[in-house]
Design brief:
Radius of gyration: 21 Å
Strand order of the largest sheet: 1-2
Helix content: 55-70%
Distance between the termini: 41 Å
Length: 202
């Protein structure tokens, strides 16, 4: 149903305070005997659940893409800082321990990007992509979480301050893991999809 602001019985409730993603306001929507005219019906009556489920593939690809963007920001901030910050007379990027972190970050970032690209291309071609979307969302969101933590470690104490964007990335990343279905749900979607495909192949 399409419900307009000002509809009797419908109001916006509390504005919720969040750990991260503060650039978008999150609010409660309250419905108390709200009456909506029939012409506001979207799609067919009693077909809402299938419509929502069909939108999940696109939603999970969207979260995967946002996760890749967040992970990329964490990586780029880290590689920039590693060239600027010096210890023992040289940039920290010349220390082997930091180089190993940067190599792992870049590899995970590229893998997340390719999984997301594959899922998006399948969706764009009209192919079923529940498994691919689940894989992309699972891996990319976990990558965003991991890379934001690694970026924090590379920045050290200054990364915990608001002087660098790393702390914001660190706060925003957990939403990716739970948005559009938790990653535990993604694993079930992936496994069940793989089993269904195997049965279909005979």
């Amino acid at each position: 149903m399409l419900i307009h602001k000002g509809t009797p019985g419908f109001r916006v409730g509390r504005h919720l305070k969040k750990l991260g993603y503060r650039g978008l306001r999150t609010s409660e929507l309250v419905f108390e005997d709200a009456r909506v005219p029939l012409e506001n019906l979207l799609g067919e009556e009693n077909a809402g659940f299938p419509m929502i489920m069909s939108a999940l593939e696109g939603g999970r690809i969207n979260v995967a893409a946002r996760s890749v963007g967040l992970a990329r920001a964490a990586f780029e901030d880290s590689i920039r800082y590693a060239q600027q910050r010096e210890t023992f007379g040289k940039p920290i990027g010349e220390h082997q321990a930091i180089q190993l972190k940067l190599a792992d970050m870049a590899t995970r970032l590229e893998a997340a990007r390719l999984l997301t690209k594959n899922a998006a291309e399948r969706k764009g071609s009209g192919l079923r992509c529940d498994v691919e979307a689940g894989m992309a969302k699972l891996f990319a969101s976990e990558t965003a979480l991991e890379l934001s933590m690694e970026a924090m470690r590379i920045h050290g104490g200054v990364g915990y301050t608001t002087e660098f964007p790393v702390e914001r990335l660190y706060r925003d990343a957990p939403l990716m893991v739970i948005g559009e279905g938790t990653n535990e749900i993604q694993r079930l979607v992936i496994a069940r999809g793989l089993l269904a495909r195997a049965r279909a192949q005979g």
